[in-house]
Amino acid sequence: MTNADPQELAKFGDLAHHWWDTESEFKPLHQINPLRLEWINSLSPLVGREVLDVGCGGGILSDSMARKGATVLGIDLATKALRVAELHAMEAGTENISYQEIAVEALAEQRPASFDTVTCMEMLEHVPDPASVVRALATLVKPGGWVFLSTLNRNAKAFMLAIVGAEYLLKMLPAGTHEYARFIKPAELAQMCRDAGLELHSMKGLSYQPLTQRYSIGSDTDVNYMLACRRPL
């Protein structure tokens, strides 16, 4: 059984042609990408690294990491999104990047301990078994390598801001993008990482200011948060 929800794949497949439109439903991803890219690069410099981007979608983060000098493999199970990612890389002339339609668990069986850095951003809240994904990430990264994850906290504030606010009031995202029950508390994700044999390094929050329409990285992990881990040597 593949650890994927067909409805979630279909949802993002239907929006695939909008991935690189910075004023589309994917505008928030374009806005936060420079922040998460610099955070990743500050902890695990990307130049010359072998990097895996899990749940890459249309390739926004994958493309930017390749432009930082990494050799990047982006994987996803959303066929249309991957085709968009491949087309964009071709049109933009991005080097050192490739895409593959494969489940992360299957890739972990094929290529254990193959990557210096592994990222999995905005994906865990869309899969039936996030712990299975985390275990695969821990298998794929080399000893001493880095794993970066991001997802949504599960609390009343996150419900109000990420679903009611972002999807229904501000209409930053299509209604139904997120399912609250699938949000993951930081303590839960941290435990998944420890259970997979990863060591926690740091956690950061992503906050949005409606008045300035800007995102920032800080200590507020109430809604969006990112976790950095390492596989022990």
TrEMBL record:
Under InterPro entries, the record lists: SAM-dependent_MTases_sf (IPR029063), UbiG_MeTrfase (IPR010233)
SUPFAM superfamilies in alphabetical order: S-adenosyl-L-methionine-dependent methyltransferases
Chemical reaction(s) catalysed: a 3-(all-trans-polyprenyl)benzene-1,2-diol + S-adenosyl-L-methionine = a 2-methoxy-6-(all-trans-polyprenyl)phenol + S-adenosyl-L-homocysteine + H(+); a 3-demethylubiquinol + S-adenosyl-L-methionine = a ubiquinol + S-adenosyl-L-homocysteine + H(+)
Q: Does the keyword S-adenosyl-L-methionine apply?
A: yes
List the molecular function annotations (GO) for this entry.
2-polyprenyl-6-hydroxyphenol methylase activity; 3-demethylubiquinol 3-O-methyltransferase activity
Q: Which UniProt keywords apply?
A: Methyltransferase, S-adenosyl-L-methionine, Transferase, Ubiquinone biosynthesis
Q: Which GO terms describe its biological process?
A: methylation
The role this protein plays is: O-methyltransferase that catalyzes the 2 O-methylation steps in the ubiquinone biosynthetic pathway.
PANTHER family linked to this entry:
METHYLTRANSFERASE, UBIQUINONE BIOSYNTHESIS O-METHYLTRANSFERASE, MITOCHONDRIAL
Family to which the UniProt record says this protein belongs:
Belongs to the methyltransferase superfamily. UbiG/COQ3 family.
Query: Which HAMAP family does this UniProt record tie to the protein?
Result: UbiG
Q: What is this protein called?
A: Ubiquinone biosynthesis O-methyltransferase
UniProt lineage: Bacteria, Pseudomonadati, Pseudomonadota, Betaproteobacteria, Burkholderiales
